[in-house]
Design brief:
This protein is of the alpha+beta class. Helix 5 crosses helix 7 and helix 8 packs antiparallel against helix 9.
Length: about 240
Amino acid sequence: MALMLDVHKELKDAAPECVFNLDEVGMIFNGAGKKALAKVHEKLFGAKVCSGKARVTAVLCANADGSIKIPLTIIGKAAKPHCFGTQGRPGGVWYLSQANAYDNAKMHVFEQFQQPADFTVVLVPLPKNTTSIHQPIDRGIGYLFKLMFTSSKAASFVRLLLKADRLPWKNSRESRGYEEGGTMSDVMNWAREAWDKVSREAIINAYIESSMLPETEHRILMSLSEKHTKEQQAH
């Protein structure tokens, strides 16, 4: 906690809605799942599973009270993915290629905040070797996002397989997309769906777990969390 004193001084008197955390999350998107659901005593047949090594990076950014989630940035290898021409470029997600992409993504996020003339962005880096403990995205937001991404991908393939009998399946774009684990357009759509499903309550709880904010602001988040819990119990 002593390492966080400088951070707490910088964030003193900053309202939770004005404090944002930004970090990247890596995802391997073209590997098949290794688990399945089955009824008791039901026999399952095995198949060779593609481990998959195609990787993308998602840049996540949200404020402490969960009221603002910055639209995702996806970082891939190709400068201009071929699927953008055939499937179209998904809206609501920003795409960057590999070279210096993360730095450019950070600048893109900051530019969105600096549109009002009277708005100032102050960067407060966390101490080295503390991000796994004190970074909110590492305290549950990133994990939940990846979980929702996998869920969106699985649901997409289930829908695809359910209509396979009505498609000219062999050598179709749908069959190639299934075998390859999806195109970049698919990945961006799944990522957008996943980010939309990360709840405000989950974000608040991650900030609480990280202890990133000073004591006064931390108590505000605790009150918000308790309020959301009571509202859920009332429903």
